[in-house]
Structures are given as C-alpha cells and as structure tokens.
TrEMBL record:
NCBIfam families for the chain: moaA (TIGR02666)
Full protein name: GTP 3',8-cyclase
The enzyme's E.C. designation: 4.1.99.22
Pfam family, one: Radical_SAM
Note describing how the cofactor binds: Binds 2 [4Fe-4S] clusters. Binds 1 [4Fe-4S] cluster coordinated with 3 cysteines and an exchangeable S-adenosyl-L-methionine and 1 [4Fe-4S] cluster coordinated with 3 cysteines and the GTP-derived substrate.
Protein family (similarity comment): Belongs to the radical SAM superfamily. MoaA family.
The protein's assembly and partners: Monomer and homodimer.
Gene Ontology molecular function, alphabetical: 4 iron, 4 sulfur cluster binding; cyclic pyranopterin monophosphate synthase activity; GTP 3',8'-cyclase activity; GTP binding; metal ion binding; S-adenosyl-L-methionine binding
Known role: Catalyzes the cyclization of GTP to (8S)-3',8-cyclo-7,8-dihydroguanosine 5'-triphosphate.
HAMAP family noted in UniProt: MoaA_B
Pathway in which the depicted protein is active: Cofactor biosynthesis; molybdopterin biosynthesis
Amino acid sequence: MSERVIALVDQRPPSLPLPTLPAGQDLSALPLDGLRRPLTDLRISVTDRCNFRCSYCMPKEVFDKDYAYLPHSQLLSFEEITRIANVFVGRGVRKIRLTGGEPLLRKNIEILIEQLAALRTPDGQPLDLTLTTNGSLLARKAQSLKDAGLQRVTVSLDGLDDAVFRQMNDVDFPVADVLAGIEAARAAGLGPIKVNMVVKRGTNEHEILPMARHFRGTGIVLRFIEYMDVGATNGWCMDEVLPSADVVRLLQTELPLVQLDPSVPGETAERWGYANAQGVHDKTLGEIGVISSVTQAFCGDCNRARLSTEGRLYLCLFASQGYDLRQLLRDPAQSDHTLAQTVDAIWRGRTDQYSVLRSLRGPDSASGPGRRVEMSYIGG
Ligand code: SF4
C-alpha cells in the first residue's frame, strides 16, 4: 500500500541551511551558545500524532482527519534517534526527554528506550531518561517502559473534573483513566512523577485547588504551567494567561507554601514546598512547581535543544525553523564526527530567547516574525 503524502511544505516551514564547518574545528571543549548557555537537555519528539485534541496544542479544527501527518518514512528510525542522541551526549547532553505528539503512540517505543538507556556519558554515567505523556496509555505501558530502562515520567493533566477534562482533551477521554495511568507509573517505580497542568484563565483555573489537594502528600510533584503562545494554531491571547503569581496566591489561601531553592541550574519550574504549622517545608506533604513561561521568562538558563520527529533541530520552543540533521544521518558519507561538529557549530550560533523578547515587546505581542512550529511537532 502506498503512503499518503501531502506536500509538507504547506504544513511546516523549510529547514535552515546547515552551518559551514570551520576548518580544524576543535571539539575538545563543550559548546556554549551565543548567550553562554551550555547544551545539557535534549527533547526528542518521536511522533507528531496524538490521540487528544487539546485546544492549546492540537485544536480539532486544524488537526482534523485531513491533516497531513508525517509519513513513516520521514520519521527518524530508532537507530537514527539513538545515533544522534549519542552525538548530543558527546556535546554535553545529560538529560533526554521523549515527547510527541503522544510518545506512547509510537510503536515499540520500549525498543528505543532500551537503546537510549544503554548510552553513557563520556565519563561513563547513564543519562537522565524521561518521557512526557498525556497518560492515556500509561496504565497499559508503565511496567514495560520501566523494564526498558525509563527512569521517570511527566504526565500532562489539566484538571480532575471529568467534564472539564473531557472538554479540554476534546476527545471525551475520562480523567479516571489518566489517574489509573499515574498510579501504574508509581507502582512500576517510574518516579519521581511530575504532573503538568496548563492553566487557562476562564477554562480550568477552578481546578487548581482540587488538583493541589489531590496530589499533596503523594510524592507526585504538580506543576502549574502558564498558557503559552506556542505554535500558530491555538489562538493564544494574554487574557487567557493566569500568571503563576496568582496561582501561588490562590494556593496560599488554603495550603501554605514556602519557596524552595532550585534543585538544578536551568530548572524551568519555580519550586514551592507545602509548609507545616511552623511555616517550614514539610517534606511529607511534598512540593509544587510553577512554570512562568509568559510572565517571567527563563531563557537566561535555557539549555534545551529539540529534535523534531523528522530530525530537525530546533533551538527554541518558539522557533519557526529548524536544522535538518536527517539529511546528514541518511548520508553514508557523513560520520559521527561530522554530526558532532555540526551540532557544536549550530549550538555555538544560538541566540534564541523568545520569551525574554516577548516580555520586552509587551504582554500582548505573542509572536515575532515568522510562523512558529507547532508544539505537537517538537514536543513541549
Ligand atoms: S523561549 Fe525559547 S529560549 Fe526561552 S526558555 Fe523557552 S525554549 Fe528556551
């Protein structure tokens, strides 16, 4: 059966030209980008498909039955992903997050996880290997993911109210099945588990306290994410952003919090611990995080690169174009050394700081020039 191919040029912008490699390029030092940020974190999208249609990510009106997903031949194979991941590890990456789309929809994802779990840093350490999922297939897959070598998961969940949740995922998926998936992940030892809740003013802000009550004291870290202007299809406007400061204020009305230090440099979430009666962090109650992508840009520490499903390297969640690494991966004349030089040169040329620039332009100016790539294509 032939693959159905629709001209992708209509759906995705052309790739950027690969850099010309400097003569005698020296790979002895790990690269810093143009704003002196290291490359430590690689997000790999393994599929551009998802079984949910959340309006902020894959709205039904755009991602309908006629939407041109990538044909299988254009996706990076597991071998290609592992090879390029190993190259990134050689240039400083220590953490790999698998994303999508919904990564658990990629057939035999466990094989890829096994391959990635076998990679080692130059000093022989395993990677921090994690995955972001909507949780819909987690109850079925948690144990096999763990057995394959996955260390932990982050689950996206925007509310506990079944009606609200069904409305937000827009495919009528019940919240109970996601909660069962989280429970299966915990039972399999895929922790510490994080739950990401995108807060959209006027849609699910009333779910903030119920979500906090539900996960407090469970060891699961709930993180509230400001609704962002990712992609070009979600019709973002600032009025729908509930600033993280308001989320923390709301939580404090019932559940006292104390601010915690970041656990690692470059951490995207600001950490808050549940406090005891003396106002001290009670570790048995756990912590929450707030990710203020809109109101408090954290580009200064951004150490993340993103590899799209078809092997394009994006330097920012809000980028409009990426670098086509697949052409190098599929060219038998190109060695891993050339790949490493290319990744190095691209990273050294990076100056992306979209959220900082958005703040400077003013809160209502969502987009700069160019059409931003969809989140379902490069992962969040
Ligand atoms: S806007 Fe881009 S550069 Fe800034 S933190 Fe987000 S991904 Fe990183």
